[in-house]
Amino acid sequence: MSEPRGLRWARVLVLGFLGLFTLVPIWAMVSSSLKPLGDVQGNWHWFPTHPTLQPYLDIWRTVPLGRYLMNSLITSGCATVCSVLIAIFAAYAISRYRFRGRNFFSMTLLSTQMFPGILFLLPLFLIFVNIGNATGVELYGSRLGLIITYLTFSLPFAIWMLAGYFDSIPRELDEAAMVDGNGPIGALIRVVIPAAVPGIAAVSIYAFMTAWGEVLFASVMTDDDTRTLAVGLQEYSTQVQVYWNQVMAASLIVSVPVVIGFLLLQRYLVAGLTAGAVK
Amino acid sequence: MSTVTPAPVAPATGASSGTPRRTRRRAALPYLLLLPALLLELLVHIIPIVVGIGMSFLQLTQFYIRNWSAAPAAGAANYRFVLDFDSGAGKSLLHSFWITCEYTVLSVGVCWLFGTAAATLMQRNFRGRNLLRTLFLVPYALPMYAAVITWSFMFQRDTGLINSVLGSHTFWLIGDNSFWSLVVVNVWRNWPFAFLIVMAGLQNIPAELYEAAAIDGAGWWRQFRCITQPMLRPVNQVLLLVLFLWTFNDFNTPYVLFGASAPHQASLISIYIYQSSFKTWNFGQGSAMSVLLLLFLLLVSGVYLALTARRRKAYV
Amino acid sequence: MRIGKMAAALAVVLAATGVTAACGGSADSAKELTYWASNQGTSLDNDKAVLQPELDKFQQQTGIKVKLEVVPWTDLLNRILAATTSGKGPDVLNIGNTWSASLQATGAFLPFDDATLDQVGGKSRFLGPSLAATGASGKPPVGVPLYGQAYGLYYNKKLFADAGIAQPPATWSELVADGKKLTDPAKGQWGLSLQAGQATENCHYAAILGAQHGATFFTPDGKPQLASDQAVAGIQQYIDLMQQDKIVNPSDAEYVDTAKSLKDLADGKAAMFMNQASAGSFKTIGMDMSNLGVAPIPLPDNPIAGDRKVTSFVAGINMSVFADTKNRDGALQFVKFMTSAPEQAQLNKTYGSLPTVTDAYSDPAFQAADVKVFQTVLSSTAEPMPQVPQESQFETLVGTAMKSMFADIASGKSVDAASIKSSLTDADQQIAAGK
């Protein structure tokens, strides 16, 4: 089946435009990361006139980038794993059962997405401090508090999407598993989850990226030891100088693992989001 | 949200004899499965938000921040102050609101357009498709702070990339153009997400549909209109709503792009609420504005869901 | 039971993350203090390296261990807010001195009445203007000044010499005249650089020039009176630098941080720039330091009725103590230590700021000509920003209004006294009503 020339030209033009649109700022970042500080805000040059790798060395010293990277990986990773686990159970309930309060629960989940974070930042902080005082479990200033916060942030969208994926997995599979003597949970583990691996991969990426990039709550709830990357990147802006070239270098470096993750998960992702979306 | 066909609560199908204890356990199962999610949502989202709403009825300024119970009740005073559209503050709020509406509709529209176009045109395999796909996703992977800062450098009047390419001396970060700069930056960051969602949705459309249509003589535009779009409707419904909510509340993009004080033409409501209340520790007022924003978004979502659900029923 | 197993597994996962992730609470004792320092140096690690030896010295002298955390400026106010709300915070901390009145209003900080001030060395040791920037007048201060800063006029000596100007300007009209001689848009050279896109900076100059015209922005009991004619005159004078005198590059309307203006001065694109002591920043962008001169910001030529001789606002960092501290005596000992003459000399020398106590100035590090300029300004012609709880709202409203005035001017529209007055009236109403 051959496609019309018009379509082929449209493809070249559109994808070319989008490629350029995406690429130019990325190139601006790369070239800024290779310039000495004075040149970054000077007149724009496509290629650095005095290229230097120094920023890539300095970024680890100006800011404890290694520590922040570890903190972000731990926090985002734990938040993702827990969020997806909890979302799987909740989504299974919503997908497979009709029970009182189901629609109310769904609408409430949706409405949590409409609130500006700054509004419930302080009350949440107070709650954490009070829990800390009452039980001795320090949620304030600890990774645990941040993990709990982040995993809850991604829950609504995760539950929504997963419920959709589960819907497209035929109930006959569940019933077949249950006829074999499994309970509903067994059906979930043995049949539904394996069939929804792509959907789970998709939701995991979303949860990870949400935690990875969150700034407001991290700035208040972390201290020196537990600070994450999203907050830490702003530390290149010091009282004396803003090290723009290092900001760019650090951002590129920390994005490399994320992009590699995207590459590896692409297969699952493409197959995955589909299964959930179509009704 | 999808209208889900429910499964029977307790599988009454033969095999299990179902002692009363087992049936009760089965009936409680959905609630138990929901429990962790419910508890966490209560702890982190619901209770703080309810407290936040409560704050809007107090005169919670820096004088009382230390001891909230001492804050005098303000009744609806905060709301009345915010909604007084004759005052300077009320006028600014209304102005921010309209700007944000325009900004959101425009951004979401363009993101969706770009995402759909790219996803559709990349369905057919060609050399370098995987590479291009990864490239398109990079803006989503980059830290927001660095990405927006890069754009602010590019938009500088004297030393920026944009003006050096165009050879002009326009202002992009102040004045009328600042609105368009904001839209461009937002689209750059968010269209990959739309691309991702639509691309996935496309995979699920059976190829036979297209083949049958081609045999019947339908051109690619016809196929796009009559097969792709209808099949994508559920995906698009979720995508557009979610993008709308996230873009409307977007704080970081304008904050970083304009260095914390946004120009008049690009004053988004999230920045406005922050600058006029939270920054000055007037949480009572900030909460009132946030609650009003919440009500508006609930209204829009409700109407949107009702309209799109009805239309879907009409098709089926 | 399956659910049980699942739930147990989940609980174990959560508990495991909790165990590995949660920090234990630190024990409070009379032998320990928690100190939040602000970022003053080239990086957070640099601050730690500067402060740690001093903290060790303190521990040697008093036996009190100080747990240090350097908090970046982007987070500091949020963290203070969270600490104020929850009661869980440090013992001692640095604050920006323009936050003083606001923080004072929360009641969460230890008031430094005369008795307490005596415990840290006495009121008279401190520079008058710096001490005035520690809270609303008539109420005991909520901190003591730690690092001082003042504004001056940096100028590029070479550009001045090339244009045949022997001395930096001493009066405002000289500034304008010099600026005009040094402005040549065709060469890309301008007389003066302004951070016209930065709201707080705009407001600082509104305060300075407004004071030179005799404006007071708040009544003694804290009510706003922003839209006075004197205030309008002060702001008009400032924006006319771009509008009428045309010695400022219109592109400066986009400048949101000092970096660009510093670079313009270093590259010779601008001849003058008003800023706080920033020798360190100039060095890191490669400025030829022998080319850099500094003078006080000029005063008006002729005295205006009611004017005040103000060439700078009192910039700087204060040290405050949390009222909820469990180690009040230790905290005060630490404040006394940090404001002692040797420490003041050492720290301010390193950071490039100015001591806030008079007896530290005898140190040879503060005898250089440019330091003397800033010292004279800080001790004699500096006035604090309005010490009212709504200070940051004031800065935001007035500064943002000025930013859009500059934006209008840059795009060719004109801004006259009437529109300045109406912007100020709007801001005034917002502050008055938002109480």
Overview of this protein structure:
The complex is a heterotrimer of chains A (279), B (316) and C (435). With 279 residues, chain A is mainly alpha-helical. Chain A has a single domain (54-277), classed as Orthogonal Bundle (MetI-like fold), CATH 1.10.3720.10. Chain A is 76% helix and 0% strand. Chain A is globular, with a radius of gyration of 23 Å. With 316 residues, chain B is mostly helical. In chain B, α2 crosses α12. Chain B is globular and about 75 Å long. The relative contact order of chain B is 0.12. Residues 1-18 of chain B have low confidence and may be disordered. Chain C is an alpha/beta fold and 435 residues long. Chain C has two domains: 32-149 and 314-383, 3-Layer(aba) Sandwich (D-Maltodextrin-Binding Protein, domain 2); 151-313 and 390-433, D-Maltodextrin-Binding Protein, domain 2 (3-Layer(aba) Sandwich). Chain C is built from 17 helices and twelve strands. In chain C, strands 2-1-3-10-4-11 form a six-stranded mixed β-sheet, sandwiched between helices. In chain C, strands 6-7-5-8 form a four-stranded mixed β-sheet, with helices on both faces. In chain C, α9 (199-212) crosses α16 (391-410) and α16 runs antiparallel to α17. Chain C is globular and about 65 Å long. At the A-B interface, α1, α4, α5, α6 and α7 of A face α1, α3, α4, α5 and α7 of B.
How would you summarize the topology of this molecule?
The complex is a heterotrimer of chains A (279), B (316) and C (435).
Chain A: H1 5-33, H2 37-40, H3 54-62, H4 65-96, H5 102-112, H6 117-135, H7 143-167, H8 171-179, H9 184-195, H10 197-213, H11 216-221, H12 229-232, H13 244-277
Chain B: H1 20-55, H2 77-83, H3 88-121, H4 129-141, H5 144-154, H6 161-166, H7 177-203, H8 207-215, H9 220-248, H10 252-257, H11 269-276, H12 283-315
Helix pairs in contact in B: 1-12, 2-12, 3-7, 3-9, 4-7, 7-9, 9-12
Chain C: H1 2-21, E1 32-38, H2 44-62, E2 65-71, H3 73-86, E3 92-96, H4 100-106, H5 114-119, H6 128-132, E4 144-149, E5 151-156, H7 157-162, H8 172-181, E6 190-193, H9 199-212, H10 229-243, H11 258-267, E7 270-276, H12 279-284, E8 292-295, E9 312-313, E10 315-321, H13 328-338, H14 341-351, E11 354-355, H15 369-380, E12 382-383, H16 391-410, H17 417-433
Parallel strand pairs in C: 1-2, 1-3, 6-7, 9-12
Antiparallel strand pairs in C: 3-10, 4-10, 4-11, 5-7, 5-8
Helix pairs in contact in C: 9-10, 9-16, 10-16, 10-17, 16-17
